[in-house]
């Protein structure tokens, strides 16, 4: 599903060498402070469980996802050099709760957050603890002392939090006038002059698809049911037609006529008079040709051996 993002504020460019990357970074929080630069790390993506790139700001206060746009036959001109790799990387803010949520669901018990986020394959995951907007009380229950930071996953809180996320995204999509109705699938990015881009249900389903980009498949299905959204597969089911109507509609006309004319129980109907079949009429020209051809030999008779 297409994303609704704001315009980037900064253009960051490194020196033109073999490791040059072109970045569009959003937010003043990604600026270097006290000699500490933003750090790009690899983390586990919450939806696919595969490797994805993220950027921590200085001090790990915020985190942004790195999205890569790659097209064939594209290059960059940097000063007096040409960079053959025409990829462009865009960083966009992400709520760190999405990244912590899979680990909370996996633990299913009270556990300190640092211990819960321990991942041998992705050791940088523990840095999420320092994020300023990591409000785990929205999706988990805190146990014990506040300094201990021990949490247990709460599905009801999670569903309520995700519902608010979906409603917020739906409001943004509606304000931007993006078409989300079934009749405007090819015009997702076309703004409607009449501001009639879809119904409330269609906006919620569209927003659910965007939020689901950061959710596991089973959690996305639970959220869909929690929102009481109609299932398209149920609406697309065809109406059942009785077998009698189907056979009568598909029966050829000739078959129907022959069925009507066929004898009942194998016996002939003697009540109907049988009309003799009409012989084909011969025209006068055909009669004249037959008389002229009488007594003439076939042309093949002249080539027989004598």
What does this protein structure show overall?
It is built from 9 helices and 11 strands. It is α+β, with helices and mostly antiparallel strands. It folds into 3 domains: 9-94, Single Sheet (N-terminal domain of TfIIb), CATH 2.20.25.530; 95-153; 155-229, no CATH class. The longest helix is centred in the middle third of the chain and has 21 residues, at 155-175. 18% of the residues are buried.
Mean pLDDT: 76
CATH top level label of the largest domain: Mainly Beta
Main-sheet strand order equals: 1-2-8-5-4-3
Count every helix, treating DSSP H or I runs of 4 or more residues as helices.
Answer: 9
Can you tell me the residue ranges where pLDDT is under 50 for at least 5 consecutive residues? Answer: 4-16, 238-242
Structural class label: alpha+beta
Q: Specify the overall morphology.
A: elongated
Order of helices and strands: EEEEEEEEHEHEEHHHHHHH
- How would you sum up the major sheet? 6 strands, mixed
When the domains are counted, the total is: 3
Number of strands: 11
Short description:
By secondary structure, the chain is of the alpha+beta class. The protein has nine helices and eleven strands.
What order do the helices and strands come in, and which of them pair?
Blueprint (H helix, E strand, L loop, with lengths): L9 E4 L8 E4 L13 E6 L6 E6 L6 E7 L6 E3 L2 E3 L4 E6 L2 H12 L3 E2 H4 L23 E4 L6 E4 L1 H21 L24 H12 L5 H10 L5 H4 L7 H8 L2 H9 L22 H9 L14
Kindly list the characteristics that best describe this protein:
306 residues, elongated, six-stranded mixed sheet, three-stranded antiparallel sheet, 16% strand, 29% helix, 9 helices, N-terminal domain of TfIIb, alpha+beta, single chain
């Amino acid at each position: 599903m297409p994303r609704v993002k704001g315009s980037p504020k900064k253009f960051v460019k490194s020196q033109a060498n073999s490791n040059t990357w072109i970045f569009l970074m959003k937010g003043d929080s990604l600026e270097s402070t006290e000699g500490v630069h933003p750090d790009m790390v690899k983390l586990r993506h919450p939806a696919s469980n595969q490797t994805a790139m993220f950027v921590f700001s200085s001090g790990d206060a915020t985190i942004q996802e790195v999205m890569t746009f790659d097209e064939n036959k594209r290059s960059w001109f940097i000063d007096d050099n040409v960079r053959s790799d025409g990829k462009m990387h865009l960083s966009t803010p992400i709520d760190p709760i999405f990244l912590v949520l899979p680990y909370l669901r996996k633990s299913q018990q009270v556990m300190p957050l640092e211990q819960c986020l321990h991942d041998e394959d992705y050791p940088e995951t523990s840095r999420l603890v320092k994020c300023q907007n990591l409000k785990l009380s929205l999706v988990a229950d805190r146990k014990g002392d506040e300094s201990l930071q021990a949490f247990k996953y709460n599905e009801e809180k999670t569903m309520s939090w995700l519902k608010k996320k979906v409603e917020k995204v739906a409001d943004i999509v509606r304000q931007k006038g993006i078409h989300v109705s079934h009749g405007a699938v090819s015009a997702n990015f076309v703004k409607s002059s009449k501001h009639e881009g879809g119904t409330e249900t269609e906006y919620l389903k569209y927003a659910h698809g965007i939020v689901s980009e950061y959710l596991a498949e089973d959690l996305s299905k639970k959220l869909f049911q929690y929102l009481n959204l109609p299932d398209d597969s149920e609406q697309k089911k065809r109406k059942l037609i009785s077998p009698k109507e189907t056979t009568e509609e598909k029966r050829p006309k000739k078959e129907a006529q022959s069925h009507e004319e066929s004898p009942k129980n194998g016996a002939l109907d003697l009540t109907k008079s049988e009309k003799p079949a009409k012989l084909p009429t011969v025209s006068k020209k055909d009669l004249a040709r037959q008389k002229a051809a009488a007594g003439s030999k076939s042309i093949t008779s002249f080539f027989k051996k004598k």
